[in-house]
Amino acid sequence: MFRSLHVAATGMSAQQTNLESISNNIANANTVGFKKQRASFQDLLYQTVRAPGARTGPTNVDPTGLQVGNGVKVVGTARIHQQGAINMTNNPLDVAIEGNGFFVVQQNDGTPAYTRSGTLRADGEGRLVTPEGLVLDPPVTIPPEATSLSISSTGAVSATVPGQPEPVDVGQIQTAIFINPSGLSSLGHNLYSQSAASGDPQLGNPGADGRGTLLQGALEQANVDVVEEMIGLIGAQRNYEVNSRVIAAADEMLRAATQMR
Fold this sequence. Notes:
The protein is about 25% helix and about 30% strand. By secondary structure, it is an alpha+beta fold. It folds into two domains: about 1-80 and about 225-260, no CATH class; about 85-220, no CATH class. The strands form eight sheets. Strands 7, 8, 11, 15 and 18 form a five-stranded antiparallel sheet that branches. A hairpin with a 5-residue loop joins strand 7 and strand 8. It is elongated. It starts with a helix and ends with a helix. The model has no long low-confidence stretch (mean pLDDT about 95).
């Protein structure tokens, strides 16, 4: 009887984590470059009262055995790296990645971080940076006298400068790909860092070796389908309610048993 209370409690705890993951997806439905998460579940260890195939007689074996489960747990929150919708902004400093890859930026401590958000800005030195001031790696610097900026699909950056008949090359945007992007560690602020699960970053120009190409004047939206998330939200709520009813039913059975004389 007490086992059912514990099992139902693990179910409620797992659905609470699932609900938190869904709510984070919905909250970031308008976050540029955000990738949704999915909670993964696994059943807990079983108590084996009688093993399948155990002898029940001289020539007979138990066809199913007797194993009692102990509930469920959340084993992971996988990041789904599907392409988000492309929104045209016509801002020359907005860049979207169409396909695989991450922009590389340098954090304040000098370590690299990776992002799908192509919301770029120019700082006081003309360097292309994120909205929080993190510099692209390798850095790209726009001349102060530039009148226009062009970013090709392969990441080549050129600027139109007065007195120059042709655009001037000012830098090259590189992107990184990973063997297992779902293994990247989330840092917040639209940033990821590599981990032992993701593997080492493979740097190169966009469009080469399986990397996606760049699209200037556009941003990749979050790949969150709000309708799908609402359906998952309803499912998580119902599962939570069912487990709470199991606890109520087990409590009633315990109450009845303790009142027997």
